[in-house]
Amino acid sequence: MASPQLKKRTPMKAHPASHFISRELSWLEFNRRVLAEVLDSTNPLLERVKFFSIVSSNLDEFFEVRVAGIKQQIESDIVERSVDGRTASETFRAVRNEVVKMLARQFQCWREELLPNLAEHHIRFLRPEELDAKRLAWLDEYYQQQVRPVLTPLGIDPVHPFPQLLNKSLNVILQLEIEHEGEVSKRLAVVQVPQVLPRLVRLPGAEEHREYVFLGHLIGHYLADIFPGTKILGYWHFRVTRNSELYIDEDDVRNLLSAVEQELHNRRKGAAVRLEVDLGTPNDICQYLLENLDLSEDDLYRIDGPLNPGRLMAICSGDHSPELRDAHYTAPIATSVRDVPDLFAAIRQRDILLHHPYENFNSVVDFLEQAARDPQVLAIKQTLYRTGGDARIVGALMSAVRNGKQVTAVTELKARFDEANNILWARRLEEAGVHVVYGMAHHKVHSKMALVVRRDDDRIRRYLHLASGNYNPSTAKIYTDISLFTAQPEFGEDATNLFNLLTGIGQFQGASKLLIAPFTLHEKIMTMIHAEAENAKAGKPARIIAKMNGLVDREIIEALYAASSAGVEIDLIIRGICCLRPGIPGVSERIRVRSIVGRFLEHSRIYHFENGGDPLVYVGSADWMPRNLYTRVEVVFPVEDPALKNRLMEEILHRQLADNTKAWILQPNASYVQAKSEDENHRNSQLEFMELALPTTRKRTVRQQARQKIGIKRAPSAPKRKVKSSA
User: Fold this and answer.
1) Rounded to two decimals, what is the model's pTM?
2) Active-site hit among 15, 19, 221, 446
3) Beta strands of 369-458 (E only): which ranges?
């Protein structure tokens, strides 16, 4: 495969701050696109509720990490501007303004659309005072037996200081009167809503009627029981969000696992960064909470609705109300591995590409399980970033040890918000005899790679699975990702060298096929972008299509600007953050940026460079963000088989560029507008991918069900294109 050589480049023009978009504001624009799925009345009702929950859980993480970081910058002695020219204080104010507007629209939809529509379908949320005597008696028994034993009333006075409240926990603050020795005094108290109990209490009744009481309202109803002999003057819910970043000095720890465990304990008590309160909470109560949490008025958010919408996912559980959901989709086994008894034999014949979640992830699990029991397999090495605790993935590794194979798992302990889960499985793997290592110091191991060493009849051969997504069968049902199986010797050699680097001590030895961060990936991307610019100047075919989750790296953005100015047509499919500003005359007028938000989370990373008519296509785990390029171990791999390359370009990338149903187009002013069809030819790429993957006998039923629910017409196939075979 011909590829551009690394060479010294002419320094690029440095662009002004006005040519860049704020990372934080770009992320909020992404969450606004998620909110648009809540507002879209053509989406099934329970799917809208799911997106409603996701909007809030996204905001939680945004405050825990990004806003926490901004506040730390404000408090530090360092004063500098971000890539878009804002100081930390200016960014914080802009973020607050956008969040307030987003919350107003989100909860207006909850009150005016979701709640009434749910009630029409017999899904209702009631307060205890709305219940009849029979159901109130049931609720009283539930409270006495399930709730009261785990409640802890926390009075606040000189003897009982303001309590340490856990991150994202829901709490009740109440004002009460108590008489002591003839004197009546007002006091404050706090009750933490137990996280171990379901936030929604379902009332007994017919299956077709689903009625719930929020646990916070239930506790509020029984406050007099918790504080006997007092008069309850009022109660209000509030919720605290804390800084959840881990702070570990890897140069100064002897045991990384123990250090991460300690930091996880500290995370629950990190500095407060946000206070959410019921809309009607009195100002003096809000000020009291702000003072005790060391927060300001700008950190306060008044919510006219449930304070923790993430718990609303509970109403979507179970098999009720199929008419309120997306049409059911069960991913088929891919044609390339269907009815294949020996995966190793199939991989020896040619590379195999899978498109998840449209093609079943069980094929990846089968690969690991077959390797675990195959007597000819000698060793298995695998990276584990987010397993989701799936017993089949780690079970295959444990089984392989029992079958006498050498097994190594590179487990990333610092996978954000999965640290505790990864620690648990790391210990179990070690107990089972798996050799567990925790990657490279100062770098997260984010690559997705499994290497199987097998003694075939002719020689020892290495079989490799590479992917853009995690080894997590649960998220593989809702994340779009790419898998590649290959037995090409050069790929196996590169993977072996990388595993040796991760588990041993030594220097990076280079790689012939794989692009590996933090060593070669950034430089190679820059070289390929520069080559496209040179090809455009020379009148050769020049185009870039890149799909990823985020684009933040300034050097790459500058390189894309230079390529656009040189005549390169550039299409970017970026789900989330994009700091590049398209459509600037003379700078980025040949760059188009779109984001697709739909039923599945767009997670795959695919890079296509036209390369003068001999296209280069890469897939991998890395976004074009500094963290991926410099502080993580990432693997990006070329797809060289002409048929598979064509599939990635025509079946996937070009279809997504034609999507005019779930796509949003980034404007020069940093806003997004929804893509629209000029005629009635509506294109929904995710729906088309489902149709492509299904056997012919199942296509019609699923197609009709899905299209009826979203009201779109049949779309034509993506245009065909001749593929030039790579050398």
Assistant:
1) 0.90
2) 446
3) 377-384, 406-411, 435-437, 444-445, 449-455
